[in-house]
Specification:
The chain has 235 residues and is α/β, with parallel strands linked by helices. The chain folds into two domains: 1-74 and 150-235, Rossmann fold; 83-146, no CATH class. Helices cover 34% and strands 26% of the residues. It contains eight helices and nine strands. The protein has helices spanning 40-47, 90-101, 106-114, 119-122, 131-143, 161-176, 188-194, 217-228; strands at residues 2-11, 14-24, 28-33, 55-60, 75-78, 149-153, 180-184, 197-202, 205-211. It comes from Micropruina glycogenica.
């Protein structure tokens, strides 16, 4: 349901992505790992149509994201938890998104409850939210259209241990329903616990693409540092 095929992207003289290929199949969670500047965000932005690859293709459900008639009903995306308008309430943010997607306002209240934002919290201005609350709001917006695909960049950032456990359960539930989840993360222990497959990237190149099987956090950490050690960062 998610596929990058031979994606290359340059920004001036900098090679940000170098022939990147991987896929996320229905019913699976794939974790996208790499140091800061490795090319993860560029790859995700190519996937959701914010960056145009120089060569190769990035598709969701077999087509380019930008060509989807109503993208939010197919793919839920969280790239930046800080992109909500600070002067709006959380509930207003989601109700406006409902208008865009053609959904009833009641759907906003459903996903607010699903992500654990209380009625009182949903009526506060976003500028008063903690990082964890902004993450929950961003996840709620990604879930709004009940999509079969989720693309999440560091969704656990700012969540407390209870929040991280809740998120893991949510993602596993989505995968068990046949969804495809692409999760960018730096939290190796959490990745080892919930992901089915791992894709590691460094300096814009795929360094590993394999199932996690029964690999523990320590084994994943060893592999990560072995593969990424000494790899120059992409810009």
């Amino acid at each position: 349901m998610i596929e990058l095929s031979h994606v290359t992207k340059r920004f001036g003289a900098t090679l940000a992505l170098d022939d990147v290929s991987f896929a996320v199949r229905p019913g699976s969670i794939v974790s996208f790992l790499g140091p800061n500047g490795a090319g993860k965000s560029t790859a995700l932005r190519c996937l959701v149509g914010l960056v145009q690859p120089d060569t190769g293709t990035a598709t969701v459900a077999g087509v380019a994201y930008r060509t989807l008639r109503s993208p939010g009903l197919v793919a839920g995306v969280l790239l930046n938890a800080d992109d909500a308008h600070p002067g709006r309430t959380g509930r207003e943010t989601l109700r406006l998104a409902c208008l865009t997607l053609g959904l009833p306002f009641s759907r906003a209240d459903e996903v607010l409850a699903e992500v654990g934002l209380s009625r009182a919290e949903s009526r506060r201005r976003v500028r008063t939210y903690s990082l964890g609350m902004r993450q929950r709001l961003g996840i709620a917006r990604a879930l709004l259209g009940d999509p079969s695909v989720l693309v999440l960049d560091e969704p656990a950032n700012g969540l407390d241990p209870q929040g991280q456990r809740w998120l893991a359960g949510l993602l596993r539930q989505r995968a068990e329903r046949g969804g495809a989840v692409l999760l960018s993360s730096h939290q190796l222990a959490e990745v080892a616990r919930i992901a089915d497959r791992v894709v590691m990237i460094g300096a814009g190149r795929v360094l590993a693409n394999r199932p996690l099987a029964d690999a523990g956090a320590a084994e994943l950490e060893d592999e990560y540092f072995t593969l990424t050690s000494g790899v120059d960062r992409a810009a």
